[in-house]
Amino acid sequence: MATELHETIFMAKQERHKNLFLNYKNLNIFPVELLKDEGLQFLERLYMKRNSLTTLPDNLAQKLPNLIELYLHSNNIVIIPEAIGNLARLQSLDLSNNALQLLCPEIGRLRSLRHLRLSNNQLKCLPPEIGDLHDLETLDVSMNQLMSLPDRLHRCLSLQNLTVDHNLLSHVPRHLCWLHRLNQLSMAANRLTFLPLDLGRSRELQFVFVDNNVDLKGLPSYLYNKVIGCSGCGVSSHSLEGDLGEVLGEALSEALVGLPAEVKVVASETDNVVPLEELAMRNLHRIYHHRPTDLNLLPPITLPKSLLDLLQFPLGHCHRCSQAMFTTIYPKLFPLRDTALAGVHRRTTVSFVAYCCSSHCLRTFDLQG
């Protein structure tokens, strides 16, 4: 096997191969032949799937500077070196089925990266720097131990496919709703109890899968005309407390479990006056909306960082008229079993929830309109 490996790499160097296949070679360490002398300056694609590698060399980028695709699926890699960030031309990186417990911040320096696959590892968090991957189109972090997603993920403006199945997510940052190129979002088998109000507002987002989140009982009404997966959702039961259940009814109360902390008022059809705090936030938003996006510079008003963030990324937009909302919502429930989708989604008890900005929008909202 060693002789065969040596000959394969020697031939690749001699003939300046762009592709090198080293899958299924029982490799425990990275082949030193790849790193000798000037390395393989012409190599663009390296396939090393199903070996037993535990790490990568620090001088990988120096010896293989023109790598475009690196496939390391099904090894035993525990850590990747900080020098990974020096692979300036890398567009596709597959580290699925390894033993990664940590992803170094230098991953954010791979500015050409378009596809990043990290499924079936032991990751508990993602570095904020992943938001620096502005050309990233595919991100797969399924089958890890993630409890949250970085807020800066919304800066991956090219992201089209995000897969986060089989993790420990309890919530989804509302910032993800600003990923306007996102076409498919899969978050099946997590611990979600609530979805962002604006999820599905983007026309580009067509496929949303949240199957087997047993505590998830409400879907934003924007998802009604999308391709959704919600089998196994809403099958758990909550013991309701407080006045919310008395005022809005048990079904709506359960659908609103996990509401963001920013929500101060859950209003009803009889609440004709919008709270003053909400009106003030809407007026501030109008001011900022027509100015440059750097809210720290304009205007000379001192506001807490949390409020500035809320102005830049509102809680949601009215499902009836698109008015930005910040602290007050007017929810309206549409049990899925009472909609035209009942025959498609049978093993679920979820409801669609329309989040409106006023009692007027609440009364006039039509799910199928």
Please characterize this protein's 3D structure.
This protein has 369 residues and is of the alpha/beta class. It is elongated. It is 15% helix and 14% strand. It has helices at residues 2-14, 60-63, 244-248, 250-255, 276-289, 305-312, 359-364, and strands at residues 19-21, 45-47, 69-71, 92-94, 115-117, 138-140, 161-163, 184-186, 207-209, 218-220, 227-229, 265-266, 316-317, 324-325, 328-335, 351-356. Strand 2, helix 2 and strand 3 (69-71) form a beta-alpha-beta unit. The longest helix is centred in the last third of the chain and has 14 residues, at 276-289. The strands form 3 sheets. The chain has a 10-stranded parallel sheet with strand order 1-2-3-4-5-6-7-8-9-11, covered by helices on one side. Strands 10-16-15-12 form a 4-stranded mixed sheet. It has a two-stranded antiparallel sheet with strand order 13-14.
User: Helix count?
Assistant: 7
Instruction: Give the overall shape.
Output: elongated
Into which percentage range does the β-strand content fall? 5-15%
Q: What is the C-alpha radius of gyration, as a whole number of Å?
A: 25 Å
Side by side, the strands of the main sheet go 1-2-3-4-5-6-7-8-9-11
Protein name: Leucine rich repeat containing 28
Keywords: Leucine-rich repeat, Repeat
Organism: Amphiprion percula (Orange clownfish)
Pfam families: LRR_4, LRR_8
